[in-house]
Structure formats: C-alpha cells, structure tokens
Task: inverse folding
C-alpha cells in the first residue's frame, strides 16, 4: 500500500534556513511503513544538507483505517486555540469535505492536537480498544492514585507492554514530558466500568462526556 505524500519543494531548515527538498508523509494506513516510523519517532524526519541539523517536519497528519470507517486527525497548529475552538474548526472542515455523503456512511473521526495523542489513538484503534472508555479509565485511575494528578501528570497507553489481560500506561511529567514510571490496570476494570455506565440508573453517558471529535481526558478535568 502506498503512503500519500505531498511534495515539499521548500522546507526551510529551522537552524540555518537552507531549503531542503524531500517528500513528506501526510496520510497513514495500518500497513504502511510510515506507521512504524511514526511509532519510532522518525516520521517526516529531515536532515539539512547544509548544517546537518536533524529535525522532524511538523505537518497535519491523518490515519485512515483499512475499511475507511475511522479517521484520526493530527493538527498541532490549532492546539493554541484550545480544544473547543479547534474541534469546531475541524468539524466545519470535515463537513465541507464530506458534503454530499450520507451521514450514516461518514467515517467516525477523532481530532488530536499533539503527536503523543495521535500515536495513542492509533494504537488503541489497532488494539480494538474504545478510546472513550480508555480516557474514562484514566479519569478513574487519577481519582484513585494519590501520587499522581492531572495537574502535573499525563497517562499514555503503552501499547508495547499491554496485553489481553493488562492495560499499562506510561506516567509522564506534564511539564517536561519525562517518563516517571508505569502503572498497570487489569482489562477487567474496563469491563466493570462499561457495566456501570450501561446501567439504567447511571447518570453518565460516554457519548455526552466525549461528544464530537476531541476525545481526551482534559475534557473531564479542565472544567
């Protein structure tokens, strides 16, 4: 399967300004070599011929599932707008691009605003995990753990260490991105949370908590 690329005739080196001629990946599928490069931190890596500066060229990315029913978008350039405005702008762009397509045939879409979240969303999809349940599980973990909190820490799904019995998260320091340690939770906890949320008397609905394109923990913690 061929990756989609955009010609980049004039990528300026961030160090010396020298024009670098290369091809940049913008669309990723599950069988693409670009997916492995993304997971390894090498996607769209460039080296300046003039000063040898090594850098990642940032550009909007999209992951498309094999059956084209699930898209994950990454656009760091709109992160500064805040997730609500970013989601609104992305939804307008999607509505315009999908105009004419029956609403029931449109792909399910997610919006991410940094590379870590983009990678995590792809890994959760490939592991057949509901990202809404995973974000709610993070909320539950933060409420139970005394040594970590949403103001200072981030939880990221560790796809290299999780399995069918255990889901593992990297605990990162929010200010520096430094990996502090890992925390494990049995997959059964997701099943228990699903049972609680599906109860008739439960006042919480995932569709309400995570309506729209942006499905991240900060929707629940930054009120």
Result:
């Amino acid at each position: 399967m061929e990756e989609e690329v955009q010609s980049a005739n004039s990528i300026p080196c961030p160090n010396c300004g020298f024009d670098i001629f290369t091809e940049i990946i913008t669309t990723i599928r599950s069988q693409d070599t670009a997916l492995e490069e993304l997971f390894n931190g090498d996607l769209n890596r460039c080296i300046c011929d003039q000063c040898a500066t090594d850098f990642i060229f940032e550009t909007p990315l999209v992951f498309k599932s094999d059956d084209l029913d699930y898209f994950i978008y990454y656009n760091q350039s709109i992160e500064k707008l805040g997730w609500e405005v970013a989601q609104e702008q992305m939804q307008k762009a999607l509505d315009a691009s999908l105009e004419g397509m029956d609403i029931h045939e449109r792909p399910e879409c997610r919006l991410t605003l940094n590379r870590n979240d983009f990678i995590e969303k792809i890994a959760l999809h490939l592991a057949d995990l509901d990202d809404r349940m995973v974000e709610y599980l993070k909320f539950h973990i933060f409420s139970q753990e005394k040594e970590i909190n949403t103001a200072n820490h981030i939880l990221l799904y560790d796809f290299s260490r999780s399995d069918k019995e255990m889901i593992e998260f990297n605990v990162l320091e929010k200010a520096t991105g430094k990996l502090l340690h890992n925390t494990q939770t049995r997959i059964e906890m997701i099943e228990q949370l699903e049972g609680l949320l599906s109860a008739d008397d439960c006042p919480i609905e995932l569709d309400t908590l995570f309506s729209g394109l942006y499905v991240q923990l900060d929707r629940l913690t930054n009120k």
Q: What stands out?
A: The mean pLDDT is 91.
